[in-house]
Design a protein that fits this description.
single chain, alpha/beta, 8-stranded mixed β-barrel, rod-shaped, binds ligand C2E, binds calcium ion
Length: about 650
């Protein structure tokens, strides 16, 4: 325990050290690069030195000074050539190399210049030549020292290399004036050293703090563009990427925006808690990262929405990518020992095919996603221009549905189901109608799916059942009422209780209520469904299997659940597809019904011929426009009164 804590402390210290090192390396590079800035000042200095030496040589006639002049020229030219080949802006040139090249050039130049000035003293040329060269050399030394304060060792090295030969020559000659010069220069060096170091510190600190704040700014920007749960880009991050990519977009390049939404993720969060939900999101993010093609960006838009944005060849490639996403996400997923089934819906739009700018691209893929969800989830939908109109209507319906019950815009209509032998009403099926003040009558096919999508179906369904039960309580005892239930309504917590309450409030015998469910309810094996059916059938409520023949038509659940009726879908009874085959199917189902003691209802009967056909095939009950459309409750009551009136003379005769 103790030793591991020590190791960690060392590691921490090392990591701090290494980050400081990288910081100082960057600062050092910036400082070294100051050596290479303003090459003009270098050139002027070099020119001055060369020109002054040439004049000194000419005036004094000393040959050795000509040699010095040539040497200075060669060094100055070599430095120019070297600095042209090396630039601190080129990252491949190492800082050390930059520094070394500068050092060699600077030191040799300074030493030669100082040497020439020393020679003018040692050779006892004229006073003016000496003044010229001493002034030139010391000015150069002081000037360069200030200029190169960013690298104090180089600066001080240059100053010393200029001064030392002059000081040596001054000592060698030993006159009073030259000894005073010696002392002057001796004092100059520490004075310049302290100035240089001060300048250096200020320079270093300001570069370091500029570095630090630039790095902080970079870090903040990265954080602001990253989603914390998944580490993917967030909305701002994706926006940034999209704007950047727009600028580099070539003429024929297509960019795909795939909007990805996890199906029923809210249930995962609600049932298993947010920590598990977050893990699921992180795993989905990993999988999306894996399928994302090169150059693509994956982002999370809060909640359970992800976006993949990237280049594609064409629509086909976008389709391929979408199906890869489905496959990858659907792979078995385990979180905390639990295996979860994750599915996604995808909406895709392409730029420039579907949208010319980013905002439109986003809107259109979002729209495509909405359609994918409405079309039954776990699907991919590509944007098409018709989507806009449909969607506006759906969104309006969504907004208004919640208040429709309150505003009394919904009604229940009743369509009779007739006993085919006696022609008498056996049941009324309750069918909801929405009379919208502006849109007119809306069909349930239009708003029930929206109600399911938004969860309003639970409230709506309870209200429908309550109304239907109330109406039925007014009818003769042998007439029952059938109510359609959506799978989502059944799976909602407290679903059975809603129905039991409706029965109690209407004071209706549970035997007189029949619940119509479709096969889709049994597609995923759900414990809640089985419990719901068991609870209610134990109280006497009956169940009918609706729209039989349109789904899986598996006989498995007919066996395992207590259905009292099977309703053969209307596409087998009327319409373009009716023929020998459908007739044979109805016969088979009717045969099954009589064996299992279930009623078989033929839906969608529109003509007398169809009545004969289904009766002959063995159906016991019939429903359809031939008998009656769905009617308001008062008309349903009238139909029943008529029926009992018709009965009276017959009974009187008997
Ligand atoms: P469904 O349960 O199959 O209801 C029968 C539908 O067929 C009704 O349409 C009815 O008006 C129509 N129909 C009846 N006879 C004929 C006929 O002879 N020919 C033709 N062409 N159609 C006929 P509706 O009322 O528009 O309902 C459509 C669907 O909406 C229903 O299909 C049901 O799935 C759903 N729905 C209706 N009311 C409710 C409800 O209260 N709750 C739930 N969850 N779903 C409902
Ligand atoms: Ca029905
Ligand atoms: Ca039906």
């Amino acid at each position: 325990m103790g030793s591991s804590a020590t190791i960690n402390a060392i590691k921490r210290r090392l990591s701090v050290r290494s980050s400081q090192d990288t910081l100082s390396a960057r600062v050092r590079r910036t400082l070294v690069s100051t050596l290479y800035t303003q090459p003009a000042s270098l050139a002027i200095g070099a020119f001055n030195g060369v020109a002054s030496t040439a004049i000194a040589a000419w005036v004094s006639g000393e040959h050795i000074l000509y040699t010095g002049c040539i040497l200075l020229t060669v060094i100055a030219m070599a430095r120019v050539v070297a600095s042209l080949g090396l630039s601190p802006d080129q990252t491949h040139t190492s800082t050390q190399k930059l520094e070394l090249v500068y050092e060699v050039g600077a030191f040799s130049y300074a030493f030669v210049l100082g040497g020439i000035a020393a020679l003018t003293i040692a050779l006892q040329t004229t006073a003016s030549v000496e003044v010229l060269m001493i002034a030139n050399a010391t000015c150069y030394g002081v000037g360069i020292c200030a200029r190169n304060a960013g690298r104090p060792t180089i600066a001080m090295g240059q100053l010393c290399l200029v001064c030392f030969p002059i000081m040596a020559a001054a000592l060698y000659i030993g006159s009073l004036a030259l000894l005073a010069l010696f002392v002057n220069m001796l004092l100059l060096i520490p004075a310049m050293a302290s100035i240089t170091l001060n300048v250096f510190k200020v320079l270093r600190d300001s570069i370091a703090s500029a570095e630090t704040s630039a790095r902080m700014a970079d870090k903040m920007q990265i954080l602001a563009r990253t989603d914390v749960v998944t580490g993917l880009a967030n909305r701002a991050g994706l926006n940034h990427v999209m704007v950047e990519s727009m600028m580099g977009l070539k003429g024929d390049q297509q960019m795909a925006l795939i909007w990805i939404d996890l199906d029923r993720f809210k249930e995962v969060n609600d049932l298993l808690g947010h920590p598990i939900g977050d893990k699921v999101l992180a795993e989905v993010a990993n999988r999306l990262r894996e399928v994302a093609p090169e150059g693509a960006t994956v982002a999370r838009f809060g909640g359970d929405e992800f976006v993949l944005y990237g280049p594609v060849e064409d629509r086909r490639e976008a389709e391929r990518l979408a199906s890869e996403i489905h496959i990858e996400v659907m792979r078995p997923l385990r979180v905390d020992g639990r295996s979860l089934d994750v599915r996604v819906s995808l909406g895709v739009a392409l730029m420039p095919d579907d949208a010319k700018d980013i905002d439109t691209l986003m809107q259109r893929s979002d729209l495509a996603l909405y359609h994918a969800k409405v079309a039954g989830r776990s699907q991919t939908s590509f944007f098409n221009p018709n989507m806009t109109r449909d969607l506006v209507r759906r969104r309006e319906i969504e907004d208004e549905l919640r208040s429709a019950i309150m505003r009394d815009e919904l009604s229940i209509y009743f369509q009779p189901i007739i006993h085919l032998e006696t022609g008498k009403i056996h049941t009324f099926e309750a069918l909801v109608r929405w009379f919208h003040p502006e849109k007119g009558e809306l069909r349930p096919d239009e708003f029930i799916p929206v109600a399911e999508e938004t969860g309003v179906i639970v409230t709506l369904g309870n209200w429908i059942t309550a109304q239907a039960a109330k109406a039925c309580a007014q009818w003769p005892e042998h007439v029952s009422v059938a109510v359609n239930l959506s799978p989502m309504q059944i799976r909602a917590p407290g679903a059975a209780l809603g129905i039991i309450n409706a029965l109690r409030e209407a004071n209706l015998d549970p035997h007189r209520l029949e619940l119509e469910v479709t096969e889709s309810l049994f597609v995923d094996d759900n414990h809640a469904t089985a419990a719901f059916i068991e609870e209610l059938s134990s109280r006497g409520v009956r169940f009918a299997l609706d729209d039989f023949g349109t789904g899986y038509s598996s006989l498995g659940y007919i066996n395992s659940f207590p259905f009292s009726k099977i309703k053969v879908d209307r596409s087998f009874v009327s319409g373009p597809n009716v023929g020998k085959k459908t007739d044979a199917i109805i016969r088979a189902v009717a045969e099954l019904g009589s064996q299992l003691d279930m009623d078989i209802v033929a839906e969608g009967i529109e003509t007398i011929d169809q009545v004969h056909a289904v009766r002959e095939a063995g159906c016991t009950l019939g429903q359809g426009y031939y008998f009656s459309r769905a009617v308001p409750d008062y008309l349903a009551a009238m139909l029943l009164t008529q029926e009992s009136d018709d009965d009276k003379p017959a009974r009187a005769q008997a």
